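Re: [help] complex structure
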Amino acid sequence: MTDRNLPPGDGYAALDEAEGLTVEPVTQWQLFRSRFVRHRLAMMAAVVLGIILALALFADFLPLENPTDQLEDDNGRIVNLLSPRAEYWFGTDELGQDVLSRVIYGGRTSLTVAVLTGLMVATFGTLVGSIAGYYGGWIDTLLMRFTDLILSLPLLPVAIVAAAWLREAFRGREALSLAILLGTLLWGTLARIVRAEFLSLREKEFVEAARAAGARDRRIIFRHILPNALSPIIVNATLVIGLAIILEAALSFLGFGVRPPEPAWGAMAANGGRLAVGGSGAWWLVLFPSVALIVTVLSVNFLGDGLRDALDPTQTIERR
Amino acid sequence: MTQDTQTQDTDNPIQMPPERLLQVENLVKHFPITQGIFFRKQIAAVQAVSGISFHIDRGETFGIVGESGCGKSTTARCVLRLLEPTSGKVLYRAESSDGSSGSHEIIDIASANKAELRRLRREMQIVFQDPYASLNPRMTVASIIAEPLVVHGIGDTADRIERVKELLKVVGLNPEHTNRYPHEFSGGQRQRIGVARALALNPAFMVLDEPVSALDVSIQAQVLNLMGDLQDEFGLTYLFIAHDLSVVRHVCDRVGVMYLGRMAEVADRDTLYERPMHPYTHALMSAVPIPDPTIERNRRRIILEGDIPSPINPPTGCRFNTRCPRAEFPRCSEEIPALKEVEPDHWVACHFPEVKQVV
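Output below.
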């Protein structure tokens, strides 16, 4: 390691070492943090995501209109389809609801769907993929044929049917029902990727060395193989988070996602698009939820990128 | 595989001479080749090891040489039961489980149960060929070397760190480097880390699976000398797998030559290099470079014809008969030559052995 690659505080340690002095022990957490902080894009993404999350979480404490109230002017007329202005920063929609408030509250729904789906996919895909890849044999055959089954399902038709049914079962908690639905449908790809990683990693000599030392399966899976399979898992999970937000939009557009008065980015953008095409010229109905959606998806991807690099100890080169 | 028997001394399988640490009898390892998605049926087998026998005495270095794919690494892994042997015995003289020093019991590694195997793992270790693949890139040096200690629950964290530093010193690395990752080290240094890990549990027996093949020649000597010093210091017994015959001559006490899953010749080092008797050994030995240009220029190389046959469908009779310059048919293609002791401690599996000086 050269000084250039060291975080500021550790540059002296490198000098000390060159003079034959001892090195201050650095914990794994410190190394991880310094690698992550150096990843500028990921840091920015983390800040942006932090702001979006905070807004969604603390929306109730902000001076916002109620997202489902139909706003009226002093004469009692509903103020629908107002373009952005001082009172309504993001304008109002065709029902006279405040778009700014809906974008912020909509973040709750969209982020809940996205994050829960991502977690479910990461957990289930990793679990199935690891077991199949590590143990092989008939367990592998069984799990992979099941995975093939899931992967062969046509996403939208199945999602529509299942969403209609789940929506009844989870009345009032559409976000949760959507997350469960998408999580169940999307883990197949990750399971395959993880299985492939396990198949190649379990033949590596360091795994054999662990076995020669007497390590049990659990230790080999969690200490040796999984950490080395982390990159594709993180990449896939971030992709799934983006995909979940977009699928939420598609399902909402078709009327099987979040129910209309309830705000969600995908549903808002889809609905706004319909109106804008219809000739109202209400561009703000499309623009703001779409920007929120795009910024979130991009941030999640950059964050995943940064996490992947920070968790890889061989990464030492400074990032722009 | 009954006609494959190449037994040396199997009168009573659980008895071994007192100086003997390891005795392999008729070891067989076949890798099945399967077909089908739901119902895997075996259609063939790679006969990687087809009934080999040898023994290793305490404190000695036994070398196994042979070309790529002859089954030497498979043998090593079966001995440590990193692979499940198809059949055969691997008798090992283990420290007695009651803990009384000096008392021993003989365990068949090939049929040991999980608990026995776990206990044996403390006594036998392995150093791998590729120092880049054998260290987990996501673990620090400290956690790599301490892993055997953690697995067997030896000491607390402070003890383990102490032991890791001690081991790093033993193998000639800076004990302050515990917090580094494998990629921060060179190939030779990484191999030393691998050696330190193997030493962590104070083993009695170590398999060295081509420990220097992946290293530069200058580094090879360093690592080999380190292995020699460690053997003297800790009284280790080595099973040394190699294909570099000069290295084998340098480090081994006794050597076995393998060809296509069978042992062709076993002898002590000097006998094997000076009076080899198996035609395959002749060919191998004639390929050893001699560091004297006049001799080197005038010697006759024995160049074998053809390629090594496939272990899926090996030749009948003597496995070397397809390439052997001395083969006489039909005997060599019908009758499997037994590994016979042609002179004291010199075993040859050939119908027509002949002493030939080639090195």
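Chain A touches chain B at residues 1, 22-23, 25-26, 28, 141, 204-206, 208-216, 219, 223-224, 227-228, 312-314 (CB under 8 Å).
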